Amino acid sequence: MSQAKAANSSSYITPWITSGLDYDEIRLMKETLSRLQQQVATKYLNKWQTLEALSKKKNKTLTMNQLRKAKNILTGASNSSMYYQPILCSTGKSYFFGLNAVGEDGLMRSLVMNQVKVQIKKDHIEQIESALKKFIDSWEQPIQPSDQSSSLKLGLTLKRGSLSHDQGELNCMNLRLAESLHTSYRISTSTGLEQIKFIQGIVGSRQSLSRVNRSLNTVWSYKDSKWNAKVSLSESIFGNKIGPDYTWSMSGDEPRLPLDQGLNTVLTNENAMLSEQTNPEVVKILGAWAYLSKGRAWGLELNDRLVSSSAPDAIKGHIVGFFGPKKNLRTTTGQPVHEGAILYIRKGARKIRMGETWIFDQKTYPTPWPPGNK
């Protein structure tokens, strides 16, 4: 009997994400992981069943390949729509077991990871299963989502130089880094996206996955019993790098991976720059063109009509282009502008002022005809 509260939303337990494990380790854990997936379903879902069984009830015809995948996905009612991704990964020296709760938009709502201090060997399987059951029992029910008010939506990717034979271990380190970041920022899941898209296709969901507005590119190396991180930040519109590389070391066995202070500072600044609570301001004036502090990542598009927030002498303009960090512009408070928009001011208007803020023009275009009709 499920412990989840009755609700009308549907959630899904995906197959296990195993990263950094070799074939023999996965083979030894196969039956255990199947039982544990059902334990996760019992904890978070009401009256769960396989996606294959649900499809049959709805008379939905699946291909052989779809049936093969659907029988390994569990679904049931829950208090909110969620994709639960159980994780077992290895950093080469340690194993980590966790649960990634992902919203319909592909953004992490919760990520918890626990270290398993037992090697995966045939005579250790029962001990490992007992430890993992205790971890599952200790997880929150229902899930308490992390703060989703952050304007920063981060994607984590391995740099191409990291794509080697130990890529699975490096992906495990990325998951651990995401665990440290997701309580402060919205993180796009980098795991199980194919499974989420598969489920959406089967159930007919039209929910699109949220786009990131900044990306963290990671390079991991292990030397002298230490994990070394080299992380760069880039904006997602032009793909330009923001600031220097950030490097720091850690054991890799910490309950939460530490973050470099410089990286933390720049993420805080980027979050503030992308805030929907503040409006674009003029950071450069070039004739009839004004360079604004916010761009496409904030939500501006070509031809958007804006009006200055100054009253009573407000002026109007529209977006004609965008720019990146190579312009080397800053706000009036000194914050660097890594991507923004170019606004063209209509003829006959007063002069633009530095630091002046702009809002969307509420007037409807084109004007309805005949005049006076709504």
What is this structure's SSE topology?
Layout lengths: L8 E5 L3 E3 L3 H22 L1 E5 H7 L6 H7 L3 E5 L4 E8 L4 E8 L5 E9 L8 H14 L14 E6 L8 H15 L4 E3 L4 H11 L10 E10 L2 E10 L5 E10 L10 H13 L8 E5 L2 E4 L12 E4 L7 E8 L5 E2 L5 E2 L2 E6 L12 E3 L14
Parallel strand pairs: 1-5, 2-5, 8-9, 8-10
Antiparallel strand pairs: 1-4, 3-4, 5-6, 6-7, 10-11, 11-12, 13-14, 14-19, 15-16, 15-20, 16-19, 17-18
Helix pairs in contact: 1-4
What keywords describe this structure?
single chain, 374 residues, alpha+beta, 2 domains, 7-stranded mixed beta sheet, 6-stranded antiparallel beta sheet, 7 helices, 20 strands, globular
What would you say about this model in short?
With 374 residues, the protein is α+β, with helices and mostly antiparallel strands. The chain has helices at residues 23-44, 51-57, 64-70, 125-138, 167-181, 193-203, 261-273; strands at residues 9-13, 17-19, 46-50, 74-78, 83-90, 95-102, 108-116, 153-158, 186-188, 214-223, 226-235, 241-250, 282-286, 289-292, 305-308, 316-323, 329-330, 336-337, 340-345, 358-360.
Structure report:
- With 374 residues, the protein is α+β, with helices and mostly antiparallel strands.
- It folds into two domains: 9-272, no CATH class; 282-360.
- 24% of the residues lie in helices and 31% in strands.
- The chain contains seven helices and 20 strands.
- The strands form four sheets. Strands 1, 2, 3, 4, 5, 6 and 7 form a seven-stranded mixed sheet that branches. A six-stranded antiparallel sheet has the order 13-14-19-16-15-20, with no helix packed on it.
- Strand 10 and strand 11 form a beta hairpin.
